[in-house]
Write a structure and sequence with these properties.
Length: 121
């Protein structure tokens, strides 16, 4: 880490589109894990093919172009919740069936009961 800043110029793989705001990032390692971070680094200029980043430390730098969060579609959310609800109801009915049908009791039924309980949980 430096007391001042230094500029680094990074070239884009493709030209910026209208409304895109690239972010200057660096690879931050903590222990054995890593993640992109913008702490100590910001974009101070550039054009459609280059970005100029002012940073306070040396590191592995990159320009990240995904500036908006990708959201799931409403249909996918509905299908997920309906599917999970139907699955839980069916597992609950299977657990009740295994518990109430003592005449069919065997090692296989016991294993299926335990599997159904684990899946339900």
């Amino acid at each position: 880490t430096f007391s001042g800043t230094f500029n680094i110029t990074l070239q884009h793989h493709k030209a910026l589109q209208a409304g895109e705001k690239p972010c200057c990032m660096y690879w931050h390692v903590v222990g054995t894990e890593g993640q992109w971070s913008s702490k100590g680094c910001k974009r101070v200029g550039g054009d459609t093919f280059h970005s100029i980043c002012a940073c306070t430390h040396f590191s592995t730098f990159a320009i990240l172009m995904a500036t908006r969060r990708i959201t799931e579609s409403f249909a996918l959310t509905v299908v997920t919740y309906v599917g999970m609800s139907v699955s839980l109801v069916c597992l609950f009915l299977a657990i009740l069936t295994f518990l109430l049908c003592r005449s069919l009791w065997s090692v296989s039924v016991t294993l299926h009961l335990q599997l159904s309980i684990c899946l339900f949980a």
